[in-house]
Write the structure tokens for this entry.
Amino acid sequence: MADEPGKGTAGDDWAAALAEQGPSGAQAPNFEELSDGAPSQAGSQNLDFLLDVPLEVTVELGKTSMIINKMLQLSQGSVIELNKAAGDTVEIYVNRKLMGKGEVIVVNDRFGVRITEIISQADRIKNMA
């Protein structure tokens, strides 16, 4: 997203807002002490709300590109060739971020994916940029 003429970046906007607040509005943050032992009951309760956060899981079977003319000629029963062969691994995305790879399976007439690889944390961080 390009900046519009005459407008600052988001970082400039935050800096200006903090400067306006000045020292009178500044408050010291309140942090809980970290312990070396098991998580406290309060800490556990603070993270429990994350367990109900919905995530969008998408499995990408393959991709292709086509010109508009070819797309307009598609009808029911048309076949679109994808860039993957049968039996190739598929990519698993969580909230549009690559999280792993897997293989397509069929269970009780429904498609599923067996996870064969989870992307390392370092690779996930690289993919986020």
Notes: The beta strands are 57-60, 90-94, 97-107, 110-118.
